[in-house]
Design a protein that fits this description.
four-stranded antiparallel β-sheet; alpha+beta; Butyryl-Coa Dehydrogenase, subunit A, domain 1; Butyryl-CoA Dehydrogenase, subunit A, domain 2; 316 residues; Butyryl-CoA Dehydrogenase, subunit A, domain 3
Length: 316
């Protein structure tokens, strides 16, 4: 049936995309699916066709205008390759392009936008979180101003293209509850405190990478946890030395008991925070440790008993 909305430009665009998919994608989709990735030069070949230039200024490599029929044609023709992961692997950048062009500074746009549109670099949108899925209004990732920049703390998951993207548009809470308290941040993948972990064993989209993203201060959490463990280890070593030399430092042993359990509670809680929703799942060591912490604080003498014993030994 003749499409009354077709124009010569749209028909030509469809013909170009069909030829591209037939030649550059269809013969290889099974191999790419098994490998779990697509070759990076495919991004640039597709970018040369202008498929990511909808609504993007020409100076950034875009089409300078938008046409939803062209967008539909792009999605239809790429879907005909028979592997949804191919389109996802390349097209994940599309939902981050508009925020970058509309909200980023001129310096950032001049530096990165053309490379994303032409397929030289990748970009992703980071909204979904481990604990809340796509419930944007209840976003937990936060951003706090620190001098002339912001520190983002939290995690995102199921982020398409995240393992290969160079740039990210990340949602984080800077204000009160609900959508009005959320801001968008442009984040480069090489920033301190940023890390990403691939999501494996997906049911579909094998050749499209999805990942969980972790921001800033997780390394700070690890440093804090490590410092507490070091302090506890030094205390235990001192007690061991004294006992090997015939002393029985009851007060120090009592203090070490409740100090150790409090630090265990702290570290297990921080580990749970780092792992997000995954840490809450049965079978995860963090879930088991977090669940069993309290019995360590009670067994062998509760914190209250140990504190009382310590102060009595100290003469108070």
């Amino acid at each position: 049936m003749k499409n009354p909305f077709d124009t010569p430009e749209r028909e030509e665009f469809r013909a170009q995309l069909k030829a591209f998919v037939d030649k550059e994608i269809k013969p290889y989709v099974n191999d790419w699916d098994e490998e779990g990735k697509i070759p990076w030069d495919l991004h640039q070949k597709a970018g040369a066709l202008g498929v990511w230039g909808f609504g993007i200024d020409e100076k950034y490599g875009g089409l300078g205008e938008d046409d939803n029929f062209l967008r539909a044609i792009y999605n239809e023709e790429f879907a005909k390759c028979g592997a949804g992961g191919v389109g996802a692997a390349m097209g994940g950048r599309m939902i981050s392009l508009e925020p970058i062009q509309r909200l980023c500074s001129s310096e950032i746009k001049d530096r990165v936008l053309k490379d994303i549109v032409t397929g030289k670099k990748g970009s992703s949108l980071g909204i979904t979180e481990p604990g809340g899925g796509s419930d944007v209004a209840n976003m937990k990732t936060s951003a706090k101003r620190d001098g002339n920049h912001f520190v983002i703390n939290g995690s995102k998951t199921f982020i398409t293209g995240a393992m290969t993207s160079d740039y990210f548009v990340v949602g984080a809470r800077t204000g009160g509850s609900g959508l009005k308290g959320i801001s968008l941040f442009f984040v480069e993948a090489d920033r301190d405190g940023f890390s990403r972990v691939p999501l494996d064993k997906k049911m579909g989209w094998w050749c499209s990478d999805q990942a969980t993203l972790y921001f800033q201060v997780i390394r700070h959490k690890l440093a804090n946890m490590s410092s507490k463990i070091d302090a506890l280890e030094a205390l235990v070593n001192n007690i061991c030395w004294n006992m090997n030399n015939g002393e029985v430092p009851v007060a120090e042993i009592s203090k070490a008991k409740f100090f150790a359990t409090k630090e265990l509670e702290y570290c297990s809680s921080e580990a749970m925070q780092i792992m997000g929703g995954a840490g809450y799942l049965r079978g995860n060591p963090v879930e088991r440790i977090y669940r069993e912490v309290k019995v360590m604080a009670i067994g062998g003498g509760s914190e209250e008993i140990m504190r009382d014993l310590a102060v009595r030994q100290m003469g108070y």
